[in-house]
Amino acid sequence: MSAMALLHKPLNGNAIAPLNLGLALVAVVASARPIWTLLYGYAEKLCLTTVYISSEDTLYDDVLLWMNHHVFQHQNFRSVIAATSNQAESITNPSTAASSNSNLKLSGTQFVDPSQSIQLKPFQGSRLFVYNRKWINFTHSAPRTGRTPHTMPDDDPLPLKLQCFSLSLSTLHAFLSEATLYSRKVSLSNVTVYRALANSRDLVRWTRVTSRPRRNLATVILDEHKKQTILGDIREYLHPRMKQWYSNHGIPYRRGYLFSGPPGTGKTSLASAIAGAFGLDIYVLSLGDSTMTESQFLRLFAEVPSQCVVLLEDIDVAGVTVARTHLPVGTSQPATGTSGPPSAGSSVISLSVLLNAIDGVSSHEGRILIMTTNAPHVLDRALVRPGRVDLHIQFELPSREELHGLFLSMFSDMIGEKMDASDEKGDPVALEDLAAQFAAKFPERRLSLAEAQGFLLKYKKQPAEACAEVSGWIIKMTQEEDERTVL
Ligand SMILES: Nc1ncnc2c1ncn2[C@@H]1O[C@H](COP(=O)(O)OP(=O)(O)OP(=O)(O)O)[C@@H](O)[C@H]1O
């Protein structure tokens, strides 16, 4: 029988019954949807409390972290979001992070294990869970950057929604407090680094770029006296009674440090280790960033929390030319005398704006300001006067003794392993011996620790080879440097 014939064949009673049943089911399901939506809407209004969270608020990361460690941890999702670790570290399990770190960290350098650099974020959707004997519905949708808490939730949903079957917000409030506390506890073992980045709407905001395990201060190679001086100074400054002392004496409660020295000598490393030692986050602003306007700079500076390290990099590029020094606040173009966009490596931040940010009304009490420069001699005296710079730490190119220390710390985890083909035991004495030979081949204070570390990284498990090859590398590096100087 043809299909046309089938279509025209009248249906008998037996065929019509299931068809009617199917149609009835479809009708029930179709009408149930709006009924459910209606009922849920009523329930939402009558007995649910709701909290929306913007992806730009720190609570967003805090809640995701809490959910990941308490609700999603043991669930095997078939639908997840994969993200590289610098975007997703905030939801990394601290225990996993700690164990991976023990294998990968060497002299403060983070070696990335590819399996650890990819994180799986929780699925997008809803999940009911119990908190303090109350049901909470967690809904996570794709975050859209640029949303603010003032956006109307119905028109333009914020990515995180928490709903509780309760007439008061107290449960959700308690939950958010716990998520924040939990996140702080996790971050105590990490240093979180924030940088000023533009979002999809070109709005420059502080963005959490990474959260890495604290760097041990012992891994920063620096004259012990200088190290202890700055540590003692910060310890005293952060003492709980100090704030009152500053207030009693009418002195603004803030402290500034200048780290100067050639590139790759450990200025940033020390700032990071200090943040870790005192359990603070780091907010990094580079004055070499020629895309940042003065108003953005002032706003970002005003937005840093009171207890943190603010790292101002490359301050020698700030307003060192006379024309830039006199730019009106809030503009990024020179007033007179100069024109056009700033050249690469120069800053649009004038000295007056920088000084304003450091000690103006917007400055925050309790913060530690660390400024770094490769050229301390070009700095305006106003910038480095006491009150803005309370301690100046000079970093130098390393001595042989410091290179010796670098070699030991790079290979210290090899004690007990074979160090070359002829070495049977891999004992500490052999490593000491190699370190002494390695350091003796360097000219005093000529190449930076960053350069020496870069060389050693090519020989991670081969200290003897590193020692044998270093002479040729030193000749090449110093020749290149001489050529650059002549040019
Ligand atoms: N004094 C040091 N102790 C330990 N590691 C160092 C030291 N100096 C440099 N390094 C290593 O070299 C790399 C670069 O160091 P770092 O960024 O701290 O240098 P820097 O002085 O801030 O350089 P720049 O002036 O170019 O910003 C890092 O990986 C760091 O581990």
UniProtKB/TrEMBL annotation:
Record protein name field: P-loop containing nucleoside triphosphate hydrolase protein
GO cellular component term, pick one: mitochondrial inner membrane
Keyword Lipoprotein attached: no
Superkingdom of this protein's organism: Eukaryota
Keywords assigned by UniProt, alphabetized: ATP-binding, Hydrolase, Membrane, Mitochondrion, Mitochondrion inner membrane, Nucleotide-binding, Transmembrane, Transmembrane helix
Compartments (UniProt record): Mitochondrion inner membrane
Membrane topology, record value: Single-pass membrane protein
Catalysis performed (reactions): ATP + H2O = ADP + phosphate + H(+)
All copies of domain BCS1 N-terminal, residue ranges: 21-220
GO molecular function, one term: ATP binding
UniProt main location, coarse: mitochondrion
